Amino acid sequence: MRPIFLVLCLSTCLAVPAAAVNVRTQPLYIFVGIADLALEVPVTQRITLMPNVRAQADLSEVQWGLQVNIYRQRRDENGWHAGLHAQTGALNSSSVESSYSVAMLSNYQWNWDEFNLTLSLGPQLKYEREASTQPDDTLDNWTLWPNARLSLGWQF
């Protein structure tokens, strides 16, 4: 799964002029020891694909994700856009075998030349499969909660 994801991300990035790429991060994760990086690549003036990766500071656990954004206006203008985000992997959990989440986000983005700031809010549905001490026994957990994000971006 990961090699296919990386090939998709790289091929998408190579097909787009470098001036159109937006590198994003969620800086608040730093306070809990997590690094976050996303690469927003335009498909059209209003639609972007954004592969992302999050990792523990020591790289012991990694999450991979992909977000699709649909902008109300052009993506380089201040305004609203909707996002659908899917993520795999679990951070800060040694008992989780696998973890998947999906979020629907309502976003507002401010742009200043190459710099941009985005606030996001929406529901997130998460599935986790936890390992058990008994063989062939796992625990499946589903959770739904609000998801809020603040991200900073630099467009190149």
TrEMBL record:
Keywords: Signal. The keyword Signal applies. It comes from the Bacteria. Residues 1-20 form the signal peptide. This is DUF3575 domain-containing protein.
